[in-house]
Amino acid sequence: MVKKLLFAxxxxxxxxxxxxxxxxxxxxxxxxxxxxxxxxxxxxxxxAMGLDxxxxxxxxxxxxxxxx
Length: 68
Fold this sequence. Notes:
By secondary structure, this protein is mainly α. The protein has a domain at 20-66. It has helices spanning 2-17, 22-38, 43-66. α2 (22-38) runs antiparallel to α3 (43-66). The longest helix is centred in the last third of the chain and has 24 residues, at 43-66. The protein starts with a helix and ends with a helix. 1% of the residues are buried.
């Protein structure tokens, strides 16, 4: 019984670990945002834009997984 429960838990965790297709849009947006940030000349502006990209990505993934 314990082995079956453990196996079912591992399978369930495997399904939860697979990236969802909804996150693909978030990742594409992140890559595009990094591209725009990389074109900046100033180190500080580029760094701030990169951080903003990451915050937007986290927000996008949160909205896709949890909802608005």
